[in-house]
Amino acid sequence: MDLTQFFLGGLPAWSLLIIAPLLFAAGFVDAVGGGGGLVSLPAYILCGLPSHAAIATNKMSSTMGTTIATIKYARRGYMDWKLCIPSVALAICGSFLGSNLALLASDRLLIIVMLVALPLVGGYVLFKKDISPKTPAFPFGKTVALCMLIAFTIGIYDGFYGPGTGTFLMLLLMGVARLDVFKTAGVTKSINLTTNVTSLAVFLVNGEVLIGLGLLAGLFNIAGNYLGATYFSNKGVGIVRPIVLVVIAIFFVRLVLQLLGIF
What we know:
0% strand; 11 helices; mainly alpha; single chain
């Protein structure tokens, strides 16, 4: 087997100059504030992968990185398992549904969805401030129900598209379910890892994943996630915003040109 072909999935060698730094940055961004897919998915598409293959392969690399961050957060005691376990169950259902919907969608439809979603996500990243619940926590039963609803809804989104999932989860879990920042980090990672694994399984079964490329990219994503989880603090958030905004802008232009058949 040609190892170059296996690990690059037919992409030119220069693709590594895009994939390596962006997948590392994506891991760091994802561990600190969520939304690493906003950096990693464009990396694949900018190198020329079709939308379905890019989304599917991105699931493999992001799953590898998210696993590392999740383990680190669990060791730090951020996981409230009474919230995580029921949320994970609903996340599986949502991600399975979203992934199968993505397989039915055409490349053109996926591009249009991205073009609609990117400005919304970009605006959120640009103007968002760190939030923490200012009101008392809900009764435990209501908190669990809200976490499950959020997990199912965002699970559908992550399975169908994905970028921004971690950020949306953190926003909703703090703003709607009223979790504190550390519980939010733990529940977010448990849901995000679950949706990634479920979606990856669907894409693997349907032969959409470039396994070698996903494994190679995943190593860079792991490194970024490890560093990001180590420096999980407000200082890190200042690095996240400019990285994500620059990549969103480049990605948006690339998608417009692709939709017009220019590039």
